Amino acid sequence: MELLPRSPREFGSARYWDCFFRQRGQRPFEWYGAFPELCPVLHKYVRPRDKVLVVGCGNSELSEQMYDVGMCEDIVNIDISDAVIRQMQERSGSTRPKMSYLLMDMLQMDFPDAHFQVVLDKGTLDALLTDEEETTIAKVDQMFAEISRVLQVGGRYLCVSLAQAHVLKKAVEYFSQEGWVVRIHQVAGSEDKQQFVLPVFVYVMTKFRKIPGSAPQILEICPEEQDKPLRMESAERLVAAVKDRQHYALLCSQISKTPCREQVSLDLCDKESGKPRYTLHVVDSPSVKPSRDNHFAIFIIPQGRETEWLFGTEEGRRQLAASAGFGRLLTVALHREQHYEGMGSIQAELSGKVMELSPPGLPARQQVPFLSVGGDIGVRTVRHCDTSPLSGEYVVEDVKGDGSFYFRRLIFLRNRNVVQSEARLLPPTPLQGQKKRRKDKKKPSPAEPPGAIDKSYLCCEHHKAMVAGLCLLGGPDTLPGELAVLVVGLGGGSLPLFVHDYFSRAHVAVVEIDPSMLEVATHWFGFSQDDRMQVHISDGLDYVAKLAAEAQYDTVMFDVDSKDLTVGMSCPPPAFVEKPFLQKVKSILKPEGVFVLNLVCRDAQLKESVLTTLRDVFPLLYARRIEGEVNEILFCQPSPEGRRDAAELRARAQALEGALRQPGQPWDSSYVLADMLQAVHIL
Q1: pLDDT recorded at residue 497
Q2: Are 137 and 173 contacting, i.e. CB atoms less than 8 angstroms apart?
Q3: A Gene Ontology molecular-function term (predicted)?
Q4: From CA 295, how far away is CA 291, in angstroms rounded?
Q5: CATH topology (fold) of 460-682
């Protein structure tokens, strides 16, 4: 039986609907949104004494169900189809005496002005606004004008819709410009997910007298899981918020039917602020054989550890999912701006939402486990947050690592998944511990660190490799004597501090463009200056250019991030690896010196171009890839005569480590310089 129109325009034709309802017979036709799902929203806006007009009623049971449950009885239903009006009069005339069905065109209604408190529309606007042609828009404007005319001030136009972008945009713009309050409700979905994929929305347009001038628009959205509306700053933002929810529904539908070929990422936002509260990644493992108990699990990433390779990269999450042994693993990262009570409260908050992301074939009422490291959500304390004109918003935070140690981190929020600088904190002294146990002791202020910075520990693998590369410095002596070092990029100061402390005759000049970073390093990372350590607030490009042709440094180290996230290279900025500038770097190096570059480049073509330029300038080039990271450390020397094979490099690294390990000077036993150079190769 053919029930669909030849053209969408036929949705506005009385002839089409007469034919439709004759062919369909007595069976009710519900476009979308059954009464049980719509009832919670309708109850908020329809009162028992209201006079209700239903436009384009069709043979839907909605009016009958509202009448039967006592929501409202004074209901007038209109439609342009004579066939359906006669059908509905026969069906409800004797059983619902206060409800009427009238043959009437909603574009030209016979009712007097301000006759109704509620106008209800279930799919009628969607059927009329099939395109954005001039004739269609004119009909919609006429429809809205008639609804406005028959509604009292304070009355509500309730429109049940799929909220296609052009339909929602037209309705929101029209009524908001008329001075009405616009609120969009998302209707809770039915249990039958196969029936309809797209979510259903109810537009609630409340009529107010139009105020002359530019009165502020009131635009709100109520997601299905909450009653309190969220205020939107513009019609565009409201339409975008609805679109986000539609995309989420489509995503849930898609991944509930088929496994994900690629990892899916999405944010769940806080109800009050609208800011991201959880970041989810859906990771499917095709290699895992499905059984009743291994279909699906949720993994809560401990706070502060979301940047680690295992949790912060696609490959790491893939490995995590495979080792966990579940067909689908949903990883959950917690945001620093949010407060969490504990694993139990997170589980309660997420349990309903995450089931929408369950895999195909999950048995009914299957218990889905929540996993974590050590069974807790970790510890994260934000110590300081501020904004720099150059680096943007940043935070300094303490997090508990994998074990008993705490770490202090500097994060630039424009790239929140990258740790800019990191230092390990020493455990509190016994005296500090006693003070902490006193009953009358107040909580420490966020400005008071729990322990001092452990300056003997280099957290970053690329820093360890950069220091190990100093064994390339020429001469037979294992530990160079007077050593002139230039470090471009301060961050938290861990790299220059280590060189300063362990190379006792080194003179370190640090160039940092952002004065805020010097304050951060000094106040939060234990950095300090003296006669052997000086910081220069300057652009590294300008500083090196001024020094050009004055060969004075044994080593130059670049560990400077790029502020431009649109480039496929986040370290260093592209200008730092252009040939003319690299030639200036070479000119300030001593003949037996070494230029050490931390390169972070995801663009393969750009990376090859950088390496080609480096080879053109420096005749001897070593590379050390950091396992599990994008970083690659490049050791560049101005003379080919210093070439050393792997065995010689290892021997020199061992000798250098022995010289650096001085009595009374703490040394991290896991830091083996020779191991850091084991994978070095000549380019």
Answers
A1: 94
A2: no
A3: methyltransferase activity
A4: 7
A5: Rossmann fold (3.40.50)
